């Protein structure tokens, strides 16, 4: 199993084999995400690498889905807060305008009585 972002790499170190799961960070840069050594044969190393890659990619997909849903919830909460703030600001503006109108009405009544 291989993807655009992850692939396996097996190399020989003396009489042992090492398997790695490698992530393509950029076009030129790679990062070893997981590795296991001391395999007696290349076939064992390849088998471990393919199994580990499948588990690793599934785990990453689940984490991405979980973080995506958490992000959606957080964005919804922020949107609701923003709406409440805007509503409070609008109410405050309307109340202030009402007070000004009442003051003007009181002043005109005072002037009319004089």
Taking strands numbered 1, 2, ... along the chain, how are they ordered across the largest sheet? Answer: 1-2-3
The run of helices and strands is EEEH
Q: Helical amount among residues, as a percent range?
A: 55-70%
Mean pLDDT figure: 92
Could you provide a short overview of the structure?
By secondary structure, the protein is of the alpha+beta class. The protein contains one helix and three strands, in the order E-E-E-H.
List the helices and strands and how they pair.
Blueprint lengths: L5 E8 L2 E9 L5 E10 L2 H72 L1
Give a structural overview:
With 114 residues, the chain is α+β, with helices and mostly antiparallel strands. The chain has one domain. The chain has one helix and three strands; from the N terminus they run E-E-E-H. It has one helix at residues 42-113, and strands at residues 6-13, 16-24, 30-39. A three-stranded antiparallel beta sheet has the order 1-2-3, covered by helices on one side. Strand 1 (6-13) and strand 2 form a beta hairpin. The chain is rod-shaped, with a radius of gyration of 33 Å. The mean pLDDT is 92.
List keywords for this structure.
single chain; 114 residues; alpha+beta; 1 helix; rod-shaped
């Amino acid at each position: 199993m291989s993807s655009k972002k992850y692939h396996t790499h097996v190399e020989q170190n003396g009489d042992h084999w090492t398997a790695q799961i490698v992530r393509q960070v950029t076009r030129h840069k790679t990062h070893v995400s997981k590795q296991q050594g001391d395999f007696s044969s290349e076939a064992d190393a390849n088998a471990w690498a393919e199994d580990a890659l499948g588990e690793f990619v599934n785990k990453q997909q689940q984490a991405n889905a979980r973080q995506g849903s958490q992000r959606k919830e957080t964005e919804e909460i922020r949107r609701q807060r923003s709406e409440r703030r805007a509503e409070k600001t609008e109410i405050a503006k309307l109340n202030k305008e009402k007070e000004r109108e009442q003051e003007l009405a009181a002043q005109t009544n005072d002037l009319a009585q004089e």
